[in-house]
């Protein structure tokens, strides 16, 4: 089933993004009255094609890209009446515009997607902490006694800024840590705010030298000492899974868990923690029903999570909006705010992408970070299953990535052709066919090598679990 979701997600995502990219080339060429012979989504043998007007529209077998083919004297004889419409006879500025349109439409589409996401709104967990583990970088610059001395009412502190940049969710904290690592900073500054009182404190000099860009799978937050505070939702059962360990326990929706093996349970987070620490064990669960306390023995299940076995009970919690309020956040804007937030999101991602590419080029970051079509398929499948916002987020990220990568000055890519046209604008004559052919050969070798490496990385990730 996962394979099917990955395949469907991949075809949807790539279909949308490749069609947009090629449509950019196609539409600008049409504006300049350049004859478009073929519009293809995919490479290789045609699965479906239809001639409409002077253009053959095609869906091909290999869904790893696409192309638009123009009338061009360099590719074969051109009828006399079509010569003025041949691509090679257009001014360098028109050719530049046609080639640039593909990646630019991907970038503009990414911005539009981010705008839509912020208009709809994103539900996130606030970066809230309540404990600081000892012997961690965070404990070296801050401890709970210091927090309590600042008037904490309930021991909950939210990270509201990293290096002066406002953060609203844990993934945004991670993003700022990544930016700091990219910029080779030794430490970062934090601003924390007590959840209930609003009391704020500044934390300077959090050492991040333990973090490694090459260890992207590492939980950077845990390494530094950030422990996300579990939402203090009352431990009231909402559902009992019919095939779970608690299915025959007699527990019912509405029951409130009070203790496990005589350990008091104040909220659902505490209950989950106790259960996860006892995989395969039998536990005594006390609960309230109609103000009467009962106790039942349940043999817990065991599942593998993050390379270790954790306990499983098969119960769902009743959502409590009021209890979730200090821990949850909905990020949404009006149109002008969404436009600005979408632009900022695009700027941040572009900067990080270019910096990571530069570090890969100079050997500062491992090429193992390259992801290929298999990883994209897996992410697409997960995004399709996770809902609209996740799907749009991936669509925007991949569209931006396609736009950026295609603008790189590598022969074979759009950016390579744009480089040739810039040289032509400067020197007043086209780049020689011999030089262009040499560049195409080198560029093709480079792209094929990187593609094979990315696929190898994908396979390695799958084999390593």
From TrEMBL:
Positions of the PDZ domain: 210-267
- Compartments, record wording: Membrane
- Membrane topology label: Multi-pass membrane protein
> Transmembrane residues, as ranges?
6-24, 96-120, 388-408, 435-456
PROSITE patterns reported in the protein's UniProt record: PDZ
Alphabetic keyword roster: Hydrolase, Membrane, Metal-binding, Metalloprotease, Protease, Transmembrane, Transmembrane helix, Zinc
GO MF, one term, reads: metalloendopeptidase activity
Cofactors required:
Zn(2+)
Asked if Cell division is a keyword of the record, the answer is no
What's one Pfam family here? PDZ_6
The EC number(s) given in the record are 3.4.24.-
An example GO biological process term is: proteolysis
Gene3D superfamilies under this entry? 2.30.42.10
GO cellular-component terms in the record? membrane
InterPro entries linked to this entry: PDZ, PDZ_6, PDZ_sf, Pept_M50_Zn, Peptidase_M50
The source's domain of life comes to Bacteria
Q: What NCBIfam families does this protein map onto? A: RIP metalloprotease RseP (TIGR00054)
Give the family this protein belongs to, as stated in its UniProt record.
Belongs to the peptidase M50B family.
| Protein name, UniProt field | Zinc metalloprotease
Source organism of the structure: Thiomicrorhabdus xiamenensis
């Amino acid at each position: 089933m996962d394979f099917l979701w990955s395949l469907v997600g991949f075809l949807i995502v790539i279909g949308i993004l490749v069609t947009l990219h090629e449509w950019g080339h196609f539409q600008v060429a049409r504006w300049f009255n350049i004859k478009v012979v073929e519009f293809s989504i995919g490479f290789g043998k045609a699965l479906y094609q239809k001639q409409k007007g002077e253009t053959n529209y095609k869906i091909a077998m290999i869904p790893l890209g696409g192309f638009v083919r123009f009338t061009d004297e360099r590719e074969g004889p051109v009828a006399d009446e079509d010569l003025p419409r041949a691509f090679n006879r257009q001014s360098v500025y028109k050719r530049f515009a046609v080639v640039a349109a593909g990646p630019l439409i991907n970038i503009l589409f990414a911005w539009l997607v981010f705008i839509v996401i912020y208009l709809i709104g994103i539900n996130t967990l606030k970066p809230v902490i309540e404990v600081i583990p000892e012997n961690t970088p965070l404990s070296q610059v801050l401890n709970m006694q210091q927090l309590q001395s600042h008037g904490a009412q309930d021991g909950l502190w939210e990270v509201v800024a990293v290096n002066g940049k406002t953060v609203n969710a844990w993934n945004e904290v991670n993003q700022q840590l990544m930016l700091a690592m990219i910029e080779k900073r030794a430490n970062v500054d934090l601003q924390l705010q007590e959840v209930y009182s609003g009391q704020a404190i500044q934390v300077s000099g959090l050492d991040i030298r333990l973090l490694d860009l090459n260890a992207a799978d590492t939980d950077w937050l845990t390494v530094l000492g950030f422990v996300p505070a579990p939402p203090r939702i009352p431990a009231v059962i909402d559902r009992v899974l019919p095939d779970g360990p608690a299915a025959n326990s007699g527990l019912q929706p509405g029951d409130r868990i009070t203790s496990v093996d005589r350990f008091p349970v104040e909220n659902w987070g505490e209950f989950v923690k106790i259960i996860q620490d006892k995989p395969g064990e039998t536990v005594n669960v006390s609960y309230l029903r109609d103000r009467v306390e009962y106790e039942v023995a349940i043999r817990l299940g065991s599942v593998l999570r993050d390379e270790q076995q954790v306990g499983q009970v098969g119960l769902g919690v009743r959502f409590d909006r009021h209890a979730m309020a200090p821990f949850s956040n909905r990020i949404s804007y009006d149109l002008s705010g969404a436009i600005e937030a979408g632009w900022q999101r695009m700027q941040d991602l572009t900067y990080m992408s270019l910096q990571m590419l530069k570090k890969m080029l100079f050997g500062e970051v491992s090429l193992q970070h390259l992801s290929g079509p298999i990883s994209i398929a897996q992410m697409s499948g997960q995004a399709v299953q996770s809902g609209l916002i996740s799907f749009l987020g991936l669509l925007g990220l991949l569209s931006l990535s396609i736009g950026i990568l295609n603008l790189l000055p590598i022969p074979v890519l759009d950016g390579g052709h744009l480089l040739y046209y810039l040289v032509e604008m400067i020197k007043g004559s086209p780049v020689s066919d011999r030089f262009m052919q040499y560049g195409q050969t080198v560029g093709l070798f480079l792209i094929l090598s990187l593609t094979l490496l990315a696929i190898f990385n994908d396979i390695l990730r799958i084999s390593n679990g």
